[in-house]
Design a protein that fits this description.
Blueprint lengths: L2 H26 L4 E8 L3 H12 L12 E6 L10 H10 L10 E3 L6 E3 L3 H7 L3 E9 L3 H4 L11 H9 L9 E5 L1 H9 L5 H7 L3 E3 L11 E5 L5 H12 L6 E8 L5 H21 L4 E6 L3 E6 L8 H9 L12 E8 L3 E6 L8 E4 L2 H10 L6
Parallel strand pairs: 1-9, 1-10, 2-14, 5-6, 5-9, 6-8, 7-8
Antiparallel strand pairs: 2-13, 3-4, 10-13, 11-12
Helix pairs in contact: 2-10, 9-10
């Protein structure tokens, strides 16, 4: 063998090893779990003000440190400014729909709709464990879009019915949210109680998030706030027992109709994401985004002084309203600008640039190595 042939043989071997290593790396990078965080109404203005209000410095949230970032269009099929139903439907199904619809699309026939398969249903069909956690009502548009299909987001009776009659698998394994009184009223129309209905579907039912640690199928419905980090830790510990993996959606309300409350929720969700990033494992895609933005603006404030104190001082002035506050003000409701999407873990590199919110469904599918159904 000549020196040239030997060199070619060495180079070919090195190339083969490199390709082999690349293939192995690609397999290793496939996600086992997906955790989707939704900051409801958590647009860029809200994240910016929430971070500075909490930490008195810019870009101080854990979200700001996530390695992959893009900007997501949130427009719905029929409006430039989306509601949560259409916004979350796009993320969960890869399809744009009309405002007020939940994981369903119009058929064009006298207001009829057709269901569209959600990412959670893909997970259920494949035997993964699933969870939905929210500090809003469990039947509200964002959580409902993970498992239900309705033409009107306010149809809570039908959403509760579908919650316990899933199209795929055995349905959401862990449900945590508000709406306990709503559930009682809805199931009463069926001559039953939530306790009876959830028990018949195999759930342990209660209002204390601590019960999540003791059962694989749990429905926690309450009418009061709860501590987010213990709840999400217990949920992940329970879901992670499934060797096939899990999907978890966590929604946290960031609407700033009440600016101080909404911006406080930014800090709460950010702390949750930080903690989950520590415990979820390297085989987990963690994705944060908002379903839509909101009309909040940070229009004042002096550096070197706590922003919260400056905001409170403005609130205390006679005649000052949320709309006229010179530090942080609110003008209207939902708005149509792009929102941030931030990601870490396997498949996170596909989150970059400008894109429609429907692409986030493809990001999650691709991370798991699944193909979309036609």
């Amino acid at each position: 063998m000549t020196a040239f042939q030997n060199t070619r043989r060495i180079l070919a071997g090195a190339a083969a090893l490199l390709l082999s290593g690349t293939a192995s790396h690609a397999v290793a990078q496939e996600a086992r779990n997906v955790i989707l965080f939704i900051g409801d109404a958590g647009g860029l203005p809200t994240l910016n003000a929430g971070g500075i209000l909490a930490n008195d410095k810019p870009q101080s949230l854990f979200i700001h440190s996530m390695p992959y970032v893009g900007l997501s269009d949130t427009s719905s099929l029929n409006q430039w400014v989306t509601d949560s139903g259409a916004g979350m439907t796009a993320i969960m199904t890869g399809r744009k729909t009309n405002n007020a619809m939940v994981s369903a699309v119009p058929t064009g026939q006298a207001g009829a709709v057709a269901p569209v398969k959600t990412f959670l249903e893909y997970a259920e069909q494949r035997g993964l464990s699933t969870g939905v956690m929210t500090n809003m009502k469990i039947w509200d548009a964002t959580p409902a879009a993970t498992f239900a299909h309705v033409g009107a987001r306010k149809d809570k009776d039908e959403i509760f019915r579908q919650m316990l009659k899933p199209r795929f698998g055995d349905g959401v394994d862990i449900l945590i949210g508000k709406g306990r009184a709503d559930a009682a009223a809805s199931f009463a129309k069926q001559q039953t109680t939530p306790e009876q209905a959830f028990a018949a579907a195999g759930y342990r039912y209660g209002e204390d998030t601590a019960i999540v640690r003791d059962a694989a199928r749990v429905a926690v419905l309450r009418d009061a706030d709860f501590a987010p980090i213990p709840a999400v830790e217990a949920t992940i510990a329970q879901l992670a027992r499934n060797p096939k993996g899990y999907f978890l959606m966590v929604e946290w309300d960031m609407h700033t109709d009440d600016p101080k409350k909404g911006l406080g929720h930014v800090r709460e969700m950010d702390e949750m994401i930080r903690r989950v990033s520590q415990i979820a494992g390297k085989d987990t895609l963690i994705l944060f985004t908002a379903d839509h933005s909101f009309g909040l603006r940070m229009s004042g404030g002096t550096r070197g002084e706590p922003l919260a104190a400056q905001y409170d001082a403005e609130v205390a002035k006679p005649g000052v309203t949320d709309a006229t506050n010179d530090v942080i003000s609110v003008h209207g409701g939902h708005t149509g600008e792009e929102v941030i999407a931030a990601a870490s873990g396997p498949g996170a590199d596909k989150v970059h640039g400008f894109f429609p919110n429907t692409r986030l469904f493809d990001v999650m599918l691709s991370a798991m190595g699944w193909k979309p159904e036609k």
